[in-house]
Amino acid sequence: MAQQDIPMNEMMNMDIIRFASAMADKASFIAEDFAQVLFPKTSVIFNDRMRSNALQYLRSVVGQLEQQICVIATREFDVAQDVLQKIANGGEGQSYRLLADSGLLRTTEIVQHLFIKAQQSELAARLLQKISQQDLEATLTRHLDHQDPVVAEAAMGLLVAQSKTTGTAGEISASLADLSAEIAYAFAWPVTASLARLSGLSGPQLQQATERFLAAHDESAGVARKASRLAQLVEQSGTAEDNIPHPMRDGLSLFIARLARQTGLTSDQIVSFTAEPNMARFVVAMRAADFPVQEALSVFSALDGGDHILTAATYQETDRDRALALVSSWTAPDAYQNAKRILADDSLGDRGK
Amino acid sequence: MTASGKLAEPVRGQVDADGMLLSADPLLMRLHLRSGGAEGGPLAVPELAEICRISRRLRMNLSRAVQASDDDCRIDMWVETRFVASDKEPQVSLAIIDWKERPYDDTDKIDPARERDFDRLEGRGAIRTDAALRIISLQMPVESGHLPDAIGQSLLEIYDVFPPSAHARLLEAVAERQPIRNQRMREKSGSQRLFLFQGQPLIDKAGIFAGYRFTAVPDGPEASGQDAQAMTGKLISDNLFGFQLGPALRQPLGKIIANAETISSKLQGPLRGDYASYAKDIASAGRHLLDLVNDLSDLEAIERPEFTVAADDIDLVDLAHRAAGLLAVKASDHQIRIDLPDEGGKLPACGEFRRSLQILVNLIGNAIRYSPDGSVIKVRVAADEEFARISVTDQGDGIAAEDQDRIFEKFERLGRSGDGGSGLGLFISRRLAHAMGGSLIVKSAAGKGSTFTLSLPYRE
């Protein structure tokens, strides 16, 4: 069983009585945590690298956010408060621990976002095993020479956005610019509440600073939106050579955005499909998008992290009409899909039929 | 609507806190009105209204792809919202920086009417059944006679499986939703003709089995008792192609074409480029042979003394559209536009539907074959007291005056070769036109294109 990694001498310094009380408060959740490990509800396997990456990313996003809010509060609203000024000046933030302990970072929206980010970094690492970083970077430059200047301009935008956020291979680089509006919103308010508590500031300045931060947030600068826009333009330009997206030709972000566009799914859905056993839903999505068999096999092997093999026979025997129907059902709103799944549960018996 | 792609200036709009459209540029206003909105009313384009709602709720700016639709087309947009917080009333301003319209994508769908036209052109019957093999629609060749009250009855109440021993095998294939190939079926009543059935299972959008679509071709030697009697005692009948060689050749040729196309499209796996190219050549040669077999069958049919045509009530405008529809893919391969008479118009004539369609397909097909890429083929109709006329004009090289009679002769190619023609099409077409009481003529000059005119008796 894993132990919380706090050295004994550090623990002794913290006042062991207080630490022991904290442990007692949390003891009732041990069974819950262990149950999640023992009885997972999905077949997705989360490896240690994904967990480590996700936590690192989460810590970084919360840290950047609290700094941004503190900068606005201290410089634009003239808040003179030690804790906030220290954070604004690059001092270590304290919100992460508070928010993590309180469970405020465990919302479905945030955890789903973390999962997608961690899986994306997995895919990037897998891709790098099959293609060099240099070749991967070259994939985007081909669109820079596109005959349509609008496409070329959008490709440049994506290239710039990527260059700002690319971390070292296999790591997620957290950038606030990369957050969608909804995720920035989901993070910003708990961080604000945490700063209010840590600083003891009772006035409206922190709230106003957050509002100003959110109003200035430009999701169009993020990699996901840039990729989505380029995907839209590339699909519209519709030249034969660009017809079938491929991660080794388009790069990961653009490939995902293009497949999402061709299937009507979201980029996040496409990424999460690649984490599922045998990438079954991903294969169905490719079939629905009518990828030729050789392209589908090639894309599969480029993104597969294990030794799974997609055969031509399996792919071709996947009925396209049924694949289209399935993909179409996955494009329904999440709330509807969840409700439908719950209502279809056998435990409800024949009620309502 | 005409806007397309990246706009010089974004299309702008303004939405208030309650979702009312305060102002909109003409393009956005038109889409709003077409979506059922009113001036000053709530923004009626659901996808845009949703993005405004999110922007208002979060009090943030968004930048997203949006797809909207109106009656005519789908519109791909890239939309940016700006949330404007003010003391009075917050607003959301919309800026649409890309606006690309595209027609609804029907290219993947097989138009049932077009499919029926192919069936009729090739003398095939078509039957559609539901999942319980009850007949939903039925269209059989004229010579098979009328099948009273077939709709709603089980296919097996109308047709016997032949030989009877194949009955269980057929039911097994249906139970497993397998395609049905080359199943012989005999009409239980009426002319008791034998047909060769091919059936494809139909799967609906939800992935559920919805029945079969069968095509039925009169089965060769047993097709007509009279013909069979006439052939008795002869090793090779007078109707060599129609009843013996034709059906015998079509089936293996069909297999050769299908397999060669499968190989050339690399559906079974990777293949060297030159091998794929050979397979394409085989498929192309196979199609040429199949056309030749069909032409020879027709040739033989029209030269038989007892050859007659039906006197259907036909509409030449409708036929022109059907023939152009059948050749649409071929025309678009060569960027050729077929300029047709207005679909709302009518030009009634008297002639056999299938044979008239065959003539028009031949004329328009020739026009496509001999026209330069990117040109226009004009199809026009006219009538006088006696005849209804339909003409097909191309922008090809034209035909010299001395050759204009020769092109209607058997196997005459005017020295052309390798273009997929058999040299029988125009001969057959003219004979068919005469058999229907009409004519087929050409007007042309070298280098100035050609106009072929089919005249058929006018029907009041």
How would you characterize the overall build of this protein?
The complex is a heterodimer of chains A (353) and B (460). With 353 residues, chain A is an all-alpha fold. Chain A has 2 domains: 111 residues, no CATH class; 158 residues, no CATH class. Chain A contains 20 helices and no strands. In chain A, α8 packs antiparallel against α9. The two termini of chain A are 46 Å apart. The model of chain A has no long low-confidence stretch (mean pLDDT 85). Chain B is α+β, with helices and mostly antiparallel strands. Helix content of chain B is 33%, strand content 28%. Chain B has 12 helices and 18 strands. In chain B, strands 7-6-11-10-9-8 form a 6-stranded antiparallel β-sheet. In chain B, strands 2-1-5-4-3 form a 5-stranded antiparallel β-sheet, covered by helices on one side. In chain B, a hairpin with a 5-residue loop joins β10 and β11. In chain B, α9 packs across α11 and α11 packs antiparallel against α12. The two termini of chain B are 41 Å apart. Chains A and B meet through α10, α11, α12 and α19 of A and α2, β3, β4 and β5 of B.
Give the topology, please.
The complex is a heterodimer of chains A (353) and B (460).
Chain A: H1 8-13, H2 16-26, H3 30-38, H4 48-76, H5 82-88, H6 95-102, H7 108-130, H8 133-144, H9 149-165, H10 181-199, H11 205-216, H12 223-237, H13 247-250, H14 252-263, H15 267-273, H16 280-288, H17 293-303, H18 312-317, H19 320-330, H20 334-343
Helix pairs in contact in A: 4-5, 4-7, 4-10, 4-11, 6-10, 8-9, 9-12, 10-11, 12-14, 14-15, 16-19
Chain B: E1 6-15, E2 21-24, H1 26-34, H2 46-58, E3 62-69, E4 73-84, E5 91-103, H3 112-121, E6 125-129, E7 135-139, H4 155-158, E8 159-162, H5 167-175, E9 180-187, E10 194-203, E11 209-218, H6 225-231, H7 240-264, H8 273-303, E12 312-315, H9 316-326, H10 328-333, E13 337-339, E14 348-351, H11 353-370, E15 376-383, E16 387-393, H12 425-435, E17 439-444, E18 450-457
Parallel strand pairs in B: 13-15
Antiparallel strand pairs in B: 1-2, 1-5, 3-4, 4-5, 6-7, 6-11, 8-9, 9-10, 10-11, 12-14, 15-16, 16-18, 17-18
Helix pairs in contact in B: 7-8, 8-12, 9-11, 11-12
